Task: structure prediction
Amino acid sequence: MKIEFSKALEKMIDKDKENCRNMRGEFLLKLNVEGFPFSRHLSFDEDIYKETKAILPYYKKVVVLGIGGSALGTRMIYRLFKSKADKELIILDTTDPMIIEEALSEMIIEDTVFVSISKSGATMETAALTIYFIEHLQNVFGEVWKNRMIFITDPLSGDLRRYVEDNSLHSLHIPTELGGRYSVLSNVGLFPLYLAGIDIKAILSGARRYLKKIKDDKDITPFTLAGCNLAHYLKGKNILALFPYSGKMKLWGEWFIQLWGESLGKIDRKGINVGQTPIVAVGPTDQHSIIQLFTQGPNDKFVLFLDIENRGTDQDISLDLPYNSFSYLKGKTFSQLIDAELKGTRENLDQLGVATALLTMEELTEERIGELIIFSYIFTVYTAQLLGVDPFDQPGVEGGKKIMFKLLGRE
Ligand code: PA5
Result:
């Protein structure tokens, strides 16, 4: 992972080097003393995965029933590497009857296995979908329905755990200390991805390698970025705009939005509402869309570009069409075009005084996604530390739930 800042930002970082170092020192101390839940669970038990898979009948499709942290990371990884998967994986994270109907119409129940995932074991959307599909399975398979659904939940608490134990159902654990949005590299994401045939070992090894680099002080990118972005947030950059130059990496943005939003949008120790709104734009598509707002709208954004150094493939444009608008394209490759588009957009924003940084991933592989996930976690947790909020709770989501439960008649 490499980072490059705009010139104005480079100057600021240079001035603030000492401060950045000290902050990083404090952070590492904390990391060593306490450790973070997400860094303590970067492994899986292959024997248990094999045994659990062996319980399932032959399947072509895996359906995950889960929402938020129990769904978004898995969706990101699966969609990125879906061409290498040997089974289809779909994620149902909604109560929208139209989407449920669509999923049902594309599902052959005999060829489908389900993974119901909920840390709390109480989330309404997951509970409703789980109950619905249990009934569906019971109607078709009777008692043996139990071999078609695996449950992933807290090892001790929650009604889902109680239901699993009371009925001797097949289950895996989510470590108690691991919060939803930090759990993609645990059973939550790894097991469904394993069922779909994704190379989870490579993802984990990338994650572990990157964490080691951080611990060994060989990569300070997330800290520098966090310090720099926060300095801008304090000067009114209320929006963090992720701008990956690849439609594929839009999924990283969707996953990151939950991580950043739920971790940082809080009331701080002084009682002040804090947080930076994350949004995602995609290059080059959004050069013909929201970029207008970035250039001439309010200057309230920190724009974080993401580039992929080696895209692993390329195409040439060799036909010469002798018109002004076309002929300059002869002899170019699509990589050259997207590079120029990114440079053009970034330089223009820099000239307009918009704060930008460019994060570069070497390539789009499972290892690098493991790395990017850890990078995103550390960037988020460190920003929370600087902001003075707890990145692991989400007290604000309860209010709406209370009203909803009342409407639905839950005690
Ligand atoms: O990050 C979080 O903790 C949340 O977004 C949860 O993942 C989400 O609310 C789903 O919770 P659960 O896994 O308990 O069903």
Remarks:
- The longest strand covers residues 301-310.
- Residues 366-387 form the longest helix (22 residues).
- The two ends are 49 Å apart (CA to CA).
- The domain at 2-29+219-396 is CATH 3.40.50.10490 (Rossmann fold).
